[in-house]
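Give me the fold.
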Amino acid sequence: MSGHEKRYYTVQEANARVARLTELFESIMQVRGLLKTLYQRLESAGYPVEQSELEEGDIEVPGDAPEEVIRDLGMFRGLVETLKEHVAEVQGQGCVIKDLEEGLVDWLSLHEGREVWLCWKYGERAVGYWHELTSGFAGRQPVSELHEDEPESPPSRSKSVH
């Protein structure tokens, strides 16, 4: 988060974003499936899309390409743009994408004064897990272990914990 103050999310705040994330990931999964089909079709026709073209966002249409290839390349280009827009909107939900293919995202949160991740995976009805910053998906623990009164940002006043 260069240049930005860190934002910490509560379970409720993350859950408020799950419905929109579910819609976005449904669309992302469909777009990825279409892209895979088009990629294979273009490759079979002898006009594979190169990794460098994907990274630069400049997919060339060869002048000698058959009409179907030109059509497929145009569709492919449009789908790549749609995918980028959806990914940007997912990131706009305050989460970090951990695995696009699986639909796995995390939100930064606080637990007992330390930073942790709230973890959600496409298909789950709510944010049900959290994990340490270094433990990843395998270290997920139920959110029921978190304290609901955690602050949204680092505490500016001291709390008595006796």
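The CA atoms of residues 75 and 104 lie 27 Å apart.
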